[in-house]
């Protein structure tokens, strides 16, 4: 098959807990997806979109070790297969089941890998995954800012959450590859930048600009700098834990998905406090920083903006983000996809889900009555205009996508068999060259 550019949207499926674990913030419930999922998939098709960031709610699906309730996943994923919509499966989006507790639990990585494998075995036609969404943000909001889940606020808690979250992601990738050898993993991670507002703020800004890379450094097995190594060690990571990440890289199966919002850039004051700066560098500059570091194909995996009082604010943001994507691509970075997140409006993201207020956030391609917004019309037109142009003239790497209904074709099975052999050869080579413990 020819190259594909991944125009995507997503169903918002965040599900952290707040109020000391007593309240579950389930965006699928708040946004009406459990009731209107068939209509939502209709809307995806109306837009001309073939790729959907989507995942089952982990807190109601993963009931215990080896125990799963696939009822909702069976209905929804069978319908996606029928429609030939390729899901980018989001298995953990800011929350874990009550019985696991939170991201301080050292058992979480192994348990999550079992869940990932069970999902892959049940839906073997699924190829694209984001095992854990926004690993850095998840650890930061849960264990450094004290907003979600464990609601802790210390470097030790943050590093503990981060190492468990990234290890869970790595083990899940390995587990999924054991079932689907040609699986592709699209990391959806927030792309951040911290601006020093005066000379005295340069030092804290430098530390924050190093720390923003920690989740991807560990996930991709990239050695951190000496200052970040000391920070990790001082905050409770052991040498053995660090070596796990350096020796378990699956970077060659990955696309670096980066998310960019107006809130991703920050002003740093001399005392280390931060506040939103608004867009200063923008997606183009910051994505080049991340690509220079990891040298992977890139997908813009999230953006949105409120539809403001003029009605065209979100439309203008869409076109500006798209212009940035084209600019990055024309600079020679292999950009393989773009996402407006999410399909419908969201609820309570104005407080970063910290409060259960029921406030509508007009961020979607459609409102919660499933009426299209101006940005939805604009995105539909953008896809129609560019979908057939980009693959033809693209300098991007060809992403070997197997659409859901093609998974039983001979060429798709041959591709997976080739990937399985390549994975085995790589494992053998690494075992032969591994240093003695």
TrEMBL record:
Entry keyword annotation includes Hydrolase: yes
Lineage, uppermost ranks: Bacteria, Pseudomonadati, Bacteroidota, Cytophagia, Cytophagales
Basic and acidic residues bias (residue ranges): 417-429
GO molecular function terms noted in the UniProt entry: hydrolase activity, hydrolyzing O-glycosyl compounds
Record bears the keyword Hydrolase: yes
Keywords from the named record: Hydrolase
Annotated Pfam families: Glyco_hydro_1
Entry protein name: Glycoside hydrolase family 1
GO BP of this protein: carbohydrate metabolic process
Region of interest: Disordered: 412-437
């Amino acid at each position: 098959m020819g190259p594909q550019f991944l125009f995507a949207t997503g169903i918002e499926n965040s599900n952290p807990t707040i109020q000391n674990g007593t309240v579950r913030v389930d965006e699928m419930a708040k946004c009406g997806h459990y009731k209107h999922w068939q209509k939502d998939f209709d809307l995806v098709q109306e837009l001309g979109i073939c790729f959907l960031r989507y995942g089952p709610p982990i807190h109601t699906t993963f009931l215990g070790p080896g125990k799963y309730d696939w009822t909702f996943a069976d209905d929804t994923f069978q319908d996606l297969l029928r429609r030939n919509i390729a899901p980018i499966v989001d298995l953990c989006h800011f929350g874990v089941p009550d019985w696991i507790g939170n991201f301080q639990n050292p058992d979480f990585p192994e348990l999550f890998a079992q869940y990932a494998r069970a999902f892959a075995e049940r839906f073997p036609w699924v190829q694209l995954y984001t095992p854990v969404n926004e690993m850095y943000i998840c650890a930061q909001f849960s264990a450094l800012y004290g907003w979600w889940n464990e609601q802790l606020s210390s470097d030790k808690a943050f590093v503990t959450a981060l190492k468990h979250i990234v290890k869970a992601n790595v083990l899940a990738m390995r587990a999924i590859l054991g079932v689907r050898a040609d699986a592709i993993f699209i990391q959806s991670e927030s792309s951040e930048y911290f601006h020093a507002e005066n000379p005295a703020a340069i030092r804290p800004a430098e530390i924050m600009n190093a720390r923003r890379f920690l989740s991807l450094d560990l996930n991709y097995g990239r050695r951190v700098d000496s200052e970040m190594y000391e920070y990790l060690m001082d905050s409770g990571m052991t040498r053995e834990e660090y070596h796990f990440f350096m020796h378990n890289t699956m970077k060659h199966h990955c696309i670096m998905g980066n998310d960019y919002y107006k809130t991703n850039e920050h002003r740093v004051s001399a005392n280390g406090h931060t506040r939103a700066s608004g867009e200063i560098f923008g997606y183009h500059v910051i994505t080049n920083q991340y690509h220079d570091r990891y040298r992977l194909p890139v997908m813009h995996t999230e953006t949105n903006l409120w539809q403001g009082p003029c009605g065209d604010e979100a439309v203008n943001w869409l076109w500006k983000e798209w212009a940035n994507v084209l600019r990055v691509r024309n600079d020679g970075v292999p950009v393989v996809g773009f996402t407006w997140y999410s399909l419908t409006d969201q609820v309570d993201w104005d407080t970063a889900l910290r409060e259960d207020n029921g406030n509508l956030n007009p961020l979607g391609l459609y409102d919660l009555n499933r009426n299209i917004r101006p940005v939805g019309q604009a995105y539909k037109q953008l896809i129609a205009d560019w979908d057939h142009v980009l693959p033809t003239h693209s300098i991007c790497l060809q992403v070997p996508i197997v659409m859901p209904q093609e998974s039983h074709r001979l060429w798709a099975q041959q591709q997976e068999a080739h990937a399985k052999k390549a994975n085995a050869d790589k494992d053998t080579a690494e075992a032969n060259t591994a240093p003695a413990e």
